[in-house]
Amino acid sequence: MAIESLSRQREIYLNGFAGKSNVVPVSFTDLEASARKKLSEQAYAYIAGGAGNESTVRSNVSSFEKLKIVPRMLRDVSARDTSIELFKHKYESPIFIAPIGVLELAHRDADLAVAKAASAMQVPYIFSSQASVPMEKVAAAMGDGPRWFQLYWSKSNELVKSFVTRVENCGCSAIVVTLDTTLLGWRTRDLDMAYLPFLEGRGIAQYTSDPVFQKLMDELEPAANRKLNWHTLAGLIQMTKNYPGNNFFSKLVSKRPIKAVQKFINTYSNPALTWDDLKFLREVTKFPVLLKGILHAEDARKAIDYGMDGIIVSNHGGRQVDGSISTIEALPSIVEAVQNKIPVLMDSGIRGGADIFKALALGAKAVCIGRPYVYGLAVAGEQGVKEVLQNMLTDFELTMALAGCRNIAEIKTSSLMHT
């Protein structure tokens, strides 16, 4: 279902004439402010925060301002086509939904709300390894909607293989390996609150629903009893509620919720990962594999050498390395390095249609949006996500047309001026 930009504009204005306000604010600044009112202090810090002094978060956005669009006139943009093709699949637009974990912090419907909105808009959803809902349930909610899967490479290759098998069985068409989170970044907002949602059993549904992970839990030695206070007791209750199953007391007595968190913390990331480990993934799947977190041209060339199918230029939304190069700054050298041998996507800092246009002009085949849709989720659940996607798609289509481009192929480097 392609969205027609003028229809979305007309809908907003006619609703306003009838006295109906938007469910979610159109401007990103107002959207974030509205979401903040809905979110707990801990949830907002987790979603909005970045590493260190958060200079990378700021740079991801401000670096777009150094690029100026140069519109061209009288080009007949009455008919427009925003579709793209990746890995023999046609997509209605170059917008993907980035994988973001622990969405239950934003809304009780979490990944399911995002999945339904994405499917309705035919926007591909990249499922997160750190989801609040197992991939099978999310896939079922999407019907035929397009989806990929983002993989955190754990310390257990057996678990990695199990995830891949499940991914192949639930209709995903590509696997995105996140490389930049083999260790957790120094996230100051979370640290100031001493809050990590995984310790409450949040965001680990892909693991607790996995048979291999359940077997790994069985191998754990029972955790030593810790002294309880009201705060740890509340955490234990939350942990038990988040573990699969309906019988709270049976879950509590079994200590499975505690084991799940303990095993997850000890397993989920693998700082010993090297390029040679990618051979294992190539052996266990024929699906396209993209590497997410590439910022250096040499790493882009190595991705090709190791048989990878695509790259997502990303710095994890500024959540991992303070003072990192922004993704829009890194994009041109990555595009030049790969020489069109594999597609390059990008995320981090996308806030509107102009940002999408600029990324495509510099050679990205598609972009992934993150925080904007999470804020929409916080404000109004599924409808909030849907409206954010509608607004983003409309903004992009109008920007493309007003810049004198009828389709994605006409968006070129010459459409931009550097300042």
Secondary structure topology:
Blueprint: H1 5-17, H2 28-38, H3 41-48, H4 55-62, E1 67-69, E2 84-86, E3 89-91, E4 95-97, H5 110-121, E5 125-127, H6 135-142, E6 147-151, H7 157-169, E7 175-178, H8 188-193, H9 205-208, H10 211-218, H11 230-242, H12 248-254, H13 256-267, H14 278-284, E8 289-294, H15 297-305, E9 310-313, H16 327-338, E10 344-347, H17 353-361, E11 366-369, H18 371-402, E12 416-418
Parallel strand pairs: 4-11, 5-6, 6-7, 7-8, 8-9, 9-10, 10-11
Antiparallel strand pairs: 1-12, 2-3
Overview of the structural elements:
The protein folds into two domains: 317 residues, Aldolase class I (TIM Barrel), CATH 3.20.20; 63 residues, no CATH class. Helix content is 46%, strand content 11%. The chain is built from 18 helices and twelve strands. The longest helix is centred in the C-terminal third of the chain and has 32 residues. The chain is globular.
- The end-to-end span amounts to 37 Å
Q: If strands are numbered along the chain, what order do they take across the biggest sheet?
A: 4-11-10-9-8-7-6-5
Please state the CA-atom Rg, rounded to the nearest Å.
Answer: 21 Å
Main sheet makeup: 8 strands, parallel
Quaternary state of this entry equals single chain
Q: What is the number of independent domains?
A: 2
How many helices does DSSP assign?
18
Overall residue-averaged pLDDT value: 95
The CATH superfamily title of the largest domain: Aldolase class I
Q: State the total count of DSSP E strands.
A: 12
Features:
single chain; 419 residues; alpha/beta; TIM Barrel; 2 domains; eight-stranded parallel beta sheet
